[in-house]
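note to self: dont lose this again. the chain is below, predicted strucutre after it. 244 aa total, dont forget to put it in the shared folder this time
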Amino acid sequence: MDNQQDLHQPSVAVHDRAVAGMFGRIARFYDLLNHVLSLGIDCYWRRVLARAAVPGPTGRFLDLAAGTMDVSLALRRRHPGCQVLAMDFCLPMLTQGRKKLARRLEHRITAVNGDGKHIPLPDNSVDSVTIAFGIRNILPRPEALAEMYRVTAPGGRVCILEFGSGRERIWGGLYNWYLTRLLPRIGRIVSRDSAAYGYLARTICEFPSARELAREMEAAGFARVKYRKLTSGIVCLHVGEKKA
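---
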């Protein structure tokens, strides 16, 4: 067992460094590309995510893979009384997000560099956990789901916004063509990073179906797990609750 773990760890460490480095390279262009590549619909997706989070006794939310903090800000708009811990593995992304906080004089969002597999919080310490377009980048995923469950207070929620599996045909295959052919080209032109948006398309295509991810959440202990497909299934919102 120990030998298997030793063999597994280096591959995870290499993956983590590669993902952090890739997002660091495109951090300056990240918001622009999100809006352009989604035709602005990403703003709606994040509002739906913020509405799914529920306040509770701690008065705190954890926004994992917070990146440039659009979700953190959406949480503050939706739940003005809350505090948000915005955590991300990639420092350059958080740096871009901190600039937004400074412009908005936002003092109730705290940016922290951290790993979603090892969340530096006590048990039962936040009302809800959100993660937008980040669970796809965390390996192994069960460790991240277990950590989200641990830090969520009883009765709280974990809300996961993620692209649907590219294995499902959407809009008669038009979206799949856009995902694999057009999106990497646009990303390369704007960010000049040929690998980043090829990685995006590949991981969407490899990601589990909504039903499979729901089963993973149930295996992590979440109750009343449900999911909602947005924009014809391009994106899915998953919600699971921690039993009170």
